[in-house]
Automatic annotation (TrEMBL):
Protein's recorded name: 5-oxoprolinase
Biological source species: Fusarium kuroshium
One GO cellular component term noted in the UniProt record for this chain: cytosol
Domain Hydantoinase A/oxoprolinase: 244-539
Stretches assigned to the Hydantoinase/oxoprolinase N-terminal domain: 12-226
Domain Acetophenone carboxylase-like C-terminal: 667-722
Example of a GO MF term: 5-oxoprolinase (ATP-hydrolyzing) activity
Family, per entry: Belongs to the oxoprolinase family.
Superkingdom to which the source organism belongs: Eukaryota
Domain Hydantoinase B/oxoprolinase: 744-1275
Length: 1277
C-alpha cells in the first residue's frame, strides 16, 4: 500500500462478491500483468467460498504453479486483497441479521417503530412494513436536553457555573442533565439480556451526538460484560435520533455477520485472517477502503456499488475537459445511477429497506428496473417491475418456467445472442438460452394485448415497447440527479457498466439528450476494478454549532486535531506523509433553515463562505441574507493508491487515428430489431478490434461478458481502454402520428413516466429550496401539473388530501383569468371558496403560456402547509374558530409575481397587516419563512414549466396534449372497471354508510353504481348542515377522499389524475358541513373531517375498519401581537400525530402511523428540542388501543411534551367521544385523549382538554396526547 518499495513484485487483488457472480481484478502495480475474470458466487460442488477461489486462480497464474483447493493459501506475494460484498445489503433486505437489542432513553422504546410516522406506500391500506431490526428494547432511565432553543427571539447568555446540572456539549451548546444513569440498575438490565442469549446491542440516547457521556458509560460497561456494542455517537455524531438510532441498530444487526464472514474467509489462508494482517481491505459505502478490523455493517450497505462509482470516476473522468459523468450500472434486478463532476457526491442520510440510515454514502440512486425485471401488461399500460424474476426461476429463456423479463425482450429482438452464452440453463443447468420459449411468450402476450385493445401489434413491437418503457423508467432517477438539481442532463457523458448496460446505453442516452457514452474495457467488472483503484480512507466528523464568521480566523486550528487523527491512523497502516491527502469540509447552512451543504475547502484559501453561497445558489436557486452556521467539521484522510496511470478518453481520442472498420473484422451477420424493423447487422468481437477502429451503427459488439448494441445514428470508436459511442447527428423532433385519435399504449406508458417525473422533480425542488420545518422536514406539500382547464394530469404521491383538491384550486384560477395572464405571472390562493382546503395550505399556481398566442397550455401548482399565517392562535390551527377570518390570512387570487416582479409589499399587507385588523387576531408569526417558502413554491413551478416545455420541444404540443388526455382516459377506464366489479360483489345493491363527528353531526353516504356505464353516484344527502365551528370541509376535500379510496381499492400502480373522477357524480347538497359557505371556518375540515369522510367511504365499500379518524393537530407558540406598531417576535410550531390504522379482511391494522389523507412526517425529537422550548418525555405506542377482531386494529400513540416557557397550546382532534368503529363484527379502537398536566397553586392536576381546546400553559406544564387506535375486522375467533 502507499508507495512503499518492495523487493519483488507483489500482486494486488480486488474482488466484488455479488449475489450471482463474483468479479475479480488482479494486477501487479507498474507492470502489465493483469487478470480479469468472473466466477459464480455460489458453486458448492467446486468450492466453498468464491473470493477465496478467485484468489487461488489468480495466484496459480501469477506463480505459474498449481494450487490445490484443499491447501491453505500462502499470501507472501500478495500486496493487498481488496473486497466489496453484498452480505450486509442482502441481510438488511431479507431481514437475516444478528439477534440485536436496543438500549434507548426512557420514554422512547417505540421510537424506531414509529420512525417519522409516514407509511411507506400511501395507497396501501394494509400499511405493510418490514420488521424491525432489533428483537427487544431496554429503556434506560437517563436524560439530557438543550438549555437554549433556536427559535428564541430573545436569546440571553447562559452562565453554566451557576447551575451544576448544566454542561457544555461537544458543539459548544449548553446541555442540561435531567437524569444521570444508574449504572447498577443498568448492569442488571444488561445481565438479563446476556442471559437471554443476546450478544449484540445498539445504544442510542437523546442528544448523544453532542453529549455522549451517558452512551459511553453504558457502552463501556456492556463491553466489559462481553457484548458487541454499536454506539450511535461513535458511529455518526449527528443530530436526529431516529436515523442515528436506526444506524446504530443496523450496525449491531449486521456487523456480527461481517465479522463471521471475514473469520470464515480467513480459514482459507495460512495463519487465518490474523495472518493477512494489513493486507485485507474492504470497500465502504463512502467509496473508501478500510482495514477488515474496522469494516462494520453500517458502512457496508453500498460496498459493491461504491466500487463502480470509483471505477468510472478514476478511469473515465477528464480533469482538464471537466465534462461531468453519469454512471449507469444496470444489473439483474435493479439499476444504480450516480454522478461525478470532479468530486464525489456524498449523502449523509438515506433510506434502505425502510431503514433510515445516518452514515456517509456515495450518492447512488436505485430504480427497480434491471435485466430480470418482469414485464407487465396492466390496465392498458406497459409496466416494468418492480418485481424481478431473480436467478431462480429467472426469465423465460432460462428454461425454469419464469416470467417474461427485460432480458427476454433483448434476446427476442436480437440484442442478446444465445450462441455466445454458456450452456448453464434449464433444470440441470446444462442447456443454452431458450429463444423459442421467449418468442412464444411474446406471441401470447401480443395476442392478449391486441385482443383487449383492438390493436394489431407485432410481438417485436410489444417487446421493443417494453424496452422503451424500461429506458424511460431508468431515466427518471438520472433526471433527478441532474435536472432535479438545476443541471442540464445533456452536458454529461453516460458511463455504462453492469451486465445489461450495453444493450440499453444508446437508447437511455438518447432519451436524456446525451450524445456520448463511454464503456470501459472492464465495464462488466467495474466495481472490482474500482475497488482496485480505491484509496484507504479514515474519516472523522465532529458536531459543531457556531457562526462561520466567528470561526473563520481559527479554522486551521479547528481542523488540526482531526487532521492529526487521520495522519496517525494512516501512518500506522504504512502510508508515508507524501501519500496521504486530506479533504476538509464544513457542513454549513443559513440560520433558520435546515438546508445544509457539505462544503469542501477550496484548494488555495479558507473561504468556505463564498463556496457555500455559490453552491447554495446553484443547488437551490437562491441565497439568503442570513448568518451562515456551522453544524459539523469533517476531515477525510486518504492513503492514495499508486501504481496506475491513465490516459483520459479525450487524450485517447486525440492520440488514435480513427478509421472506418473493415468488413473483414465482422465475425458474422446477425439480425437485430431496431428502429422498428429487422436489420442484418455486423457482429464484432471486441477483442478482435484495434484502437482507432470506427464501428458504425447499427451493429453489435461482443466482449467476454456483455453485448453492446450500437444503434442507428451512433458510432463506436475503439480506444485502448474504452469503447466510446457517439451520436452522429441530432435527432429530428419526434413526428406525430397521422391518426390524431390513436393512443399508442407504449407511448402512453412512456408519457406516464414523463409526467410523473416532472411532478416528482417539482417536489424535490420545493423540499430542497424551502426553509421551514413544515415543508422541508415534515414534507407537508404536494406538486402537480394540470390541463388548461385545471384537470389533474400528474401528482407526485405526496399528501393524499391534496390529490383531488388541488384541481379545484387550479380550475378556479383558470376560469377567473382565462387567457389574461402573461409569462412570468404567478398566482397565489388559499381560500376554500377558490378551491382551497384550509388557509394554512397555500397554493402557488403558474400557467404554462404559449408566448405567441397567450394561450394557457398547462398549469403547474404547488400546495404547501405554512406553519403560521396569523389568526387567533399560534400555528394558525385554532380549535375553536367560528369564522374563517379567525384562521389567518386569506386570498382568493393574488399575483404573487407579476411578469417577474415579486409583489412583497402587497403580500405583506395580506399576510401581516390585514389579518391583524380582526378582533383577537395577529398577522403571520413567521413572515420571513412564509416569504422564503412562497419563493420556493414559485421556483418549483418554474422547474415544472421548464420540464414541460422541454417535453413539448421533444414531442410537439399536440402529441403532449393528446397523451395528457390519454393518461386521464386510461385512469377513467380503470376506475370504471373497478366500479363494475364492486357492483357485482354487492349484487347491484346500493352501498350505504353513516357516521358521526364527535359533536353528533351526521355524515350520510349512499353509492349507486351503474354497471353498464361503469359509473357511480356518491350521494351525501342527509349530512348535517354547516357547523358553527371549524370542521366544515370544502367540497374539494370530499373529492380528495373519494379519489384516494378508489385509487387504494384498485391496489395497482395506476396513473392518478382527473380521469379517476370522470365516472363519479357527487351529490353534495348546499349548506352542509361538506359544502359550506364562503365565510365558514374550515381549518379542521382539511385535517380531520377529511379523515372521517375517508373512513365513511371505506365503510360503504366494506373495505376496512375505521382508522384513527384524525390528525391530532397540535400547535404551540407565542408572539405576533402588535405593540407600538410592531409585531412581537415569537414562533408558531405545528405537528400532526400518528395513530392506529384500521384492520381489513386479510390484515391487522398498523400501529403508530399516519393514515389515509395525510402522510406528513413528524419532527425528530432532537430537532424539536433544539428548535423549541420543550422536552419530549415520551413518544411511544399506546398498547392495547387497537380494536380487537379476527384481524385487530392498529394501536395509537402516546406523546408527552413539557414546556420550558409560557406558550399558547392548541389541540384540534376528533375521535375523543365516538371511537373508531370496527367492521364485520370487529371491535372499535380506543378513543383518543388530550390531557393538560397543570402546575398551579392547587398542585399538579391532570385536566381533560376534550377534542378541541386552547390553553395558556406555564413553564413546567405538560400536554399528553393519546391518539386513537384503529377498528378491528371480523369477530374474535
Amino acid at each position: 500500500m502507499g508507495s512503499i518499495p518492495t523487493e519483488q513484485p507483489k500482486i494486488r487483488i480486488a474482488i466484488d462478491r455479488g449475489g450471482t457472480f463474483t468479479d475479480v481484478h488482479a494486477y501487479v502495480p507498474n507492470t502489465r500483468h493483469e487478470q480479469v475474470f468472473k466466477l459464480l458466487s455460489v458453486d458448492p460442488k467446486n468450492y466453498k467460498d468464491a473470493p477465496t477461489e478467485g484468489i487461488r486462480r489468480v495466484l496459480e497464474k501469477f506463480r505459474g504453479t498449481r494450487l490445490p483447493r484443499q491447501e491453505l493459501i500462502d499470501t507472501w506475494d500478495i500486496e493487498s486483497i481488496r473486497m466489496g460484498t453484498t452480505i450486509a445489503t442482502n441481510a438488511l433486505l431479507e431481514r437475516q441479521g444478528e439477534r440485536a437489542a436496543l438500549l434507548t432513553t426512557k420514554g422512547f422504546r417505540d421510537l424506531l417503530v414509529i420512525g417519522n410516522q409516514a407509511r411507506p406506500h400511501i395507497f396501501d391500506l394494509t400499511v405493510r412494513k418490514l420488521e424491525n431490526l432489533y428483537e427487544t428494547v431496554v429503556e434506560i432511565d437517563e436524560r439530557v436536553t438543550m438549555e437554549e432553543f433556536l427559535e428564541n427571539p430573545e436569546k440571553q447568555p447562559i452562565d453554566i457555573s451557576k447551575d451544576s446540572a448544566l454542561v457544555e456539549g461537544s458543539t459548544g451548546e449548553v446541555v442540561r442533565i435531567l437524569q444521570v444513569p444508574d449504572m447498577k440498575a443498568i448492569k442488571a438490565q444488561l445481565g438479563q439480556l446476556y442471559s437471554g442469549g443476546f450478544r449484540s446491542i445498539a445504544i442510542c440516547f437523546m442528544h448523544a451526538y453532542l453529549y455522549p457521556n451517558h452512551e459511553n458509560s453504558v457502552a463501556k460497561l456492556a463491553r466489559e460484560m462481553g457484548f458487541d456494542v454499536s454506539v450511535s455517537s461513535e458511529l455518526q455524531p449527528t443530530i436526529k435520533m431516529v436515523p442515528r438510532g436506526n444506524s446504530a441498530t443496523a450496525d449491531a444487526y449486521l456487523s456480527p455477520l461481517i465479522k463471521r464472514y471475514v473469520k470464515n474467509f480467513g480459514t482459507g489462508f495460512k495463519g487465518g485472517v490474523e495472518a493477512i494482517a494489513g493486507k485485507l481491505l474492504f470497500m465502504q459505502s463512502d467509496g473508501g477502503l478500510c482495514l477488515w478490523q474496522k469494516f462494520s455493517g453500517l458502512r457496508a450497505i453500498l460496498s459493491g456499488p461504491a466500487g463502480g462509482v470509483i471505477g468510472y470516476a478514476k478511469s473515465c473522468y477528464d480533469a482538464g475537459e471537466k465534462r461531468p459523468l453519469l454512471g449507469f450500472d444496470m444489473g439483474g434486478t435493479s439499476t444504480d445511477v450516480s454522478r461525478f463532476a470532479g468530486t464525489y457526491d456524498h449523502v449523509f442520510e438515506t433510506e434502505t429497506a425502510e431503514v433510515t440510515l445516518q452514515v456517509p454514502q456515495l450518492d447512488i440512486n436505485t430504480v427497480a428496473a434491471g435485466g430480470g425485471s418482469i414485464l407487465h401488461w396492466n390496465n392498458g399500460l406497459f409496466a416494468i417491475g418492480p418485481d424481478s424474476a431473480g436467478a431462480h426461476p429467472g426469465p423465460v429463456c432460462y428454461r425454469k418456467g419464469g416470467p417474461l423479463t427485460v432480458t427476454d425482450a433483448n434476446l427476442f429482438l436480437g440484442r442478446l445472442l444465445p450462441e455466445f452464452f454458456p450452456a448453464i440453463f434449464g433444470p440441470n443447468e446444462d442447456e443454452p438460452l431458450d429463444y423459442e420459449a421467449t418468442a412464444k411468450a411474446f406471441a401470447d402476450m401480443t395476442r392478449m394485448i391486441n385482443s383487449e385493445e383492438g390493436l394489431d401489434f407485432t410481438p417485436e413491437e410489444v417487446a421493443s415497447g417494453f424496452l422503451r418503457v424500461a429506458n424511460e423508467a431508468m431515466s427518471r432517477p438520472i433526471r433527478s440527479l441532474t435536472e432535479g438539481r438545476g443541471i442540464r442532463t445533456s452536458d454529461h457523458a453516460l458511463v455504462t457498466f453492469g451486465g445489461a448496460g450495453g444493450q440499453h446505453a444508446c437508447d437511455v442516452a438518447e432519451a436524456l439528450g446525451i450524445n456520448m457514452v463511454a464503456i470501459h474495457r472492464f465495464s462488466s467488472i467495474l466495481s472490482a476494478y474500482g475497488i482496485a483503484l480505491g484509496d484507504l480512507t479514515h474519516e472523522v466528523q465532529r458536531p459543531r454549532t457556531d457562526n462561520l464568521a466567528n470561526m473563520e480566523k481559527n479554522l486551521e486550528s479547528e481542523f488540526a486535531p482531526l487532521v492529526d487523527e487521520g495522519s496517525e491512523i494512516l501512518g500506522q497502516q504504512g502510508f508515508p506523509a507524501q501519500d496521504v491527502e486530506y479533504e476538509l469540509f464544513l457542513n454549513l447552512r443559513y440560520a433558520g433553515t435546515n438546508s445544509s451543504l457539505m462544503i469542501r475547502k477550496p484548494a488555495e484559501s479558507w473561504d468556505f463562505a463564498s463556496i457555500f453561497t455559490r453552491q447554495h445558489h446553484d443547488e437551490f436557486g437562491f441565497t439568503l441574507d442570513r448568518e451562515i452556521l456551522v453544524d459539523d467539521i469533517r476531515v477525510r484522510a486518504l492513503g492514495k493508491t499508486r501504481g496506475h496511470s491513465f490516459e483520459t478518453i479525450s487524450q485517447a481520442l486525440k492520440s488514435v487515428s480513427t478509421n472506418m472498420i473493415s468488413q473483414k473484422k465482422s465475425a458474422k451477420k446477425t439480425k437485430v430489431f431496431t428502429a422498428g424493423v429487422w436489420d442484418d447487422v455486423n457482429l464484432y468481437r471486441l477483442d478482435h478490434l484495434a484502437p482507432g477502429d470506427l464501428v458504425p451503427g447499427p451493429s453489435v459488439i461482443l466482449d467476454q461478458t456483455q453485448t453492446i448494441l450500437v444503434q442507428p445514428g451512433w458510432s463506436a470508436t475503439v480506444l485502448p481502454r474504452h469503447l466510446v459511442l457517439e451520436k452522429a447527428s441530432q435527432s429530428a423532433p419526434k413526428t406525430e402520428e397521422e391518426d390524431e385519435a390513436f393512443i399508442d399504449p407504449i407511448q402512453l406508458s412512456v408519457f406516464g413516466h414523463r409526467f410523473m417525473s416532472i411532478a416528482e422533480q417539482m417536489g424535490r425542488s420545493l423540499e430542497k429550496t424551502s426553509v421551514s420545518i413544515n415543508i422541508k422536514e415534515r414534507l407537508d406539500y404536494s406538486c402537480a401539473i394540470f390541463s388548461p382547464t385545471g384537470g389533474l394530469v400528474a401528482n407526485a404521491p405526496h399528501i393524499p388530501c391534496h390529490l383531488g383538491a388541488m384541481s379545484f384550486a387550479v380550475a378556479y384560477q383558470a376560469e377567473l383569468w382565462g387567457n389574461r395572464l402573461r409569462p412570468g405571472d404567478v398566482l397565489v390562493s388559499n381560500h376554500p371558496a377558490a378551491g382551497g382546503s384550509h388557509l394554512p395550505d397555500v397554493n402557488v399556481i403558474t400557467p404554462v403560456i404559449d408566448e405567441k398566442t397567450n394561450e394557457v397550455l398547462f398549469w403547474v401548482a404547488s400546495r404547501a402547509h405554512h406553519a403560521d399565517i396569523g389568526g387567533i392562535c399560534a400555528g394558525s390551527m385554532p380549535p375553536h374558530s367560528k369564522e374563517i377570518w379567525q384562521e389567518g390570512a386569506s386570498f382568493t387570487s393574488f399575483k404573487l409575481i407579476e411578469q417577474g416582479r415579486f409583489n412583497e409589499e402587497e403580500l405583506r399587507e395580506l399576510m401581516l397587516e390585514k389579518p391583524a385588523r380582526y378582533p383577537g387576531c395577529t398577522g403571520t408569526r413567521t413572515w420571513s419563512d412564509n416569504v422564503s417558502d412562497l419563493k420556493a413554491q414559485a421556483a418549483a413551478n418554474i422547474k415544472g414549466i421548464r420540464l414541460i416545455q422541454d417535453c413539448i420541444k421533444e414531442y410537439g404540443l399536440s402529441t403532449v396534449q393528446k397523451y395528457m388526455n390519454g393518461i386521464q382516459a386510461n385512469a377513467e377506464k380503470i376506475v370504471r372497471s373497478l366500479l363494475r366489479k364492486v357492483h357485482d360483489e354487492f349484487s347491484g345493491l346500493p352501498l350505504e354508510a353513516v357516521d358521526y363527528l364527535d359533536d353528533g353531526s351526521m355524515m350520510c353516504l349512499k353509492i349507486h353504481i351503474d354497471r353498464e356505464q361503469g359509473s357511480a353516484t356518491f350521494d351525501f344527502t342527509g349530512t348535517t348542515g354547516e357547523l358553527y365551528g371549524n370542521l366544515n370541509a370544502p367540497r374539494a376535500i370530499t373529492f380528495s377522499a373519494i379519489i384516494y379510496v378508489l385509487r387504494s381499492l384498485v391496489n395497482e400502480d395506476i396513473p392518478l389524475n382527473q380521469g379517476c373522477l370522470a365516472p363519479i357524480d357527487v351529490i353534495l347538497p348546499e349548506g352542509t358541513f361538506l359544502s359550506p359557505s364562503k365565510g365558514a371556518a374550515t381549518v379542521g375540515g382539511n385535517t380531520d373531517t377529511s379523515q372521517r369522510v375517508t373512513d365513511l367511504v371505506l365503510q360503504a365499500f366494506q373495505a376496512a375498519a375505521a382508522s384513527q379518524g384524525t390528525c391530532n393537530n397540535l400547535t404551540f407558540g407565542y408572539g405576533g401581537e402588535v405593540v407600538n406598531g410592531k409585531a412581537k417576535p415569537g414562533f408558531g410550531y405545528y405537528e400532526t400525530i400518528a395513530g392506529g390504522s384500521g384492520a381489513g379482511p386479510t390484515w391487522a391494522g398498523q400501529s403508530g402511523v399516519h393514515v389515509h389523507m395525510t402522510n406528513t412526517r413528524i419532527t425528530d425529537p432532537e430537532s424539536l428540542e433544539k428548535r423549541y422550548p420543550c422536552i419530549l418525555h415520551e413518544f411511544s405506542i399506546r398498547k392495547g388501543s387497537g380494536g380487537a377482531g379476527k384481524c385487530p386494529g392498529g394501536d395509537g400513540c402516546i406523546r408527552e411534551i413539557e414546556f420550558r416557557r409560557p406558550v399558547q397550546v392548541s389541540v384540534l382532534s376528533e375521535r375523543r367521544s365516538i371511537p373508531p368503529p370496527g367492521i364485520q363484527g370487529g371491535e372499535p379502537g380506543k378513543r383518543g385523549e388530550n390531557i393538560w398536566v397543570r402546575h398551579d397553586e392547587y398542585g399538579v392536576r391532570e385536566i381533560m382538554l376534550g377534542g378541541k381546546n386552547t390553553c395558556e400553559m406555564k413553564k413546567g406544564d405538560r400536554i399528553i396526547i393519546r391518539s386513537p387506535g384503529g377498528g378491528g375486522y371480523g369477530k374474535v375467533e
